[in-house]
Amino acid sequence: MYRPKSTLEQWRILQAVVDYGGYAQAAKALNKSQSSLNHAVTKLQDLLDVKILETVGRKAVLTEAGKALLRRSRDLTNSVSSLEQLAVNINQDWEPEITLALDLAFPRNTIYQALKTFMPESRGSRLRIIDTVLTGTLDAITSASADIVISLALPKGYLGEPIRHIEFVLVCHPKHYLASLPQPISTETLSQHLQIVISDTSDSPKENQGWLKSELRWTVSQFDSAIDLLRQNLGFCWLPLHKVEHLLSTAKLTRLYLQGSSYKQSSAFLVIPKPEHKGPGVCLLEKLILQQREIDLLCYENASQKNKIDHGTK
């Protein structure tokens, strides 16, 4: 087994000498004698047989080799600090890893904004984000395979905090045959054409959600793939409005209307599958997501009010 010649303390001393601008300043900051620091760096150079510092005038300056070693030494000491902090966090029940399952239809910006705030407070906890769809999202709740789940439905016996309404619209290419028909169209007419559907991420999917009446269906794993197919004038698809709003406004896709109702809306919930087991990291991330929900709601209300005023002025 390899036994290192140098110690972490020697590398930390070298970093301090460089960061504080000399032995005297580093000795004061570390509350050590200047001679002990000089001895530690000299011994480090002797052990490695590499010149790390050289004296220029009255100042110790890094050599090119010293610069490379210093960069790597910071990775080493940071890794050890993270390892020690992880041990403290585990001892304090702070989770070493947090799993977040997100239904693919949920707008990511809300989550990303919360994660920006969470990152500096995460104490080195790893975050694993899983994309889920339909039954796969419900499975993440019932199997407790995720610590936090953003779901468009609640399994029986589970509670969730509503965080957003998501509208789904029926869309196709502007030159698709369905787009040329008088609107609204019948479900019978719609069922005669290719439907693009998003695959269920569950190992045992249950096709009891959404409109699945077309005999000819192509299945993709994500909304972006469905949108790409639609833009090639292939099929129709139910998609979250926030995913295609810009394409509808620029006439790259067009909306279809069904007889009876073309309105589909789902509520997204934040679910903690095992609330009795949630640790401080999960509690913090849950709190930040709910705070972002309030910010998003306020922005939406302000935008709606401005829109009303603008239209009133016109």
TrEMBL record:
It comes from the Bacteria. InterPro entries: LysR_HTH_N, LysR_subst-bd, WH-like_DNA-bd_sf, WH_DNA-bd_sf. Residues 7-63 form the HTH lysR-type domain. This is LysR family transcriptional regulator. It comes from Agaribacter flavus. Belongs to the LysR transcriptional regulatory family. Gene3D superfamilies: 3.40.190.290, Winged helix-like DNA-binding domain superfamily/Winged helix DNA-binding domain. Keywords: DNA-binding, Transcription, Transcription regulation.
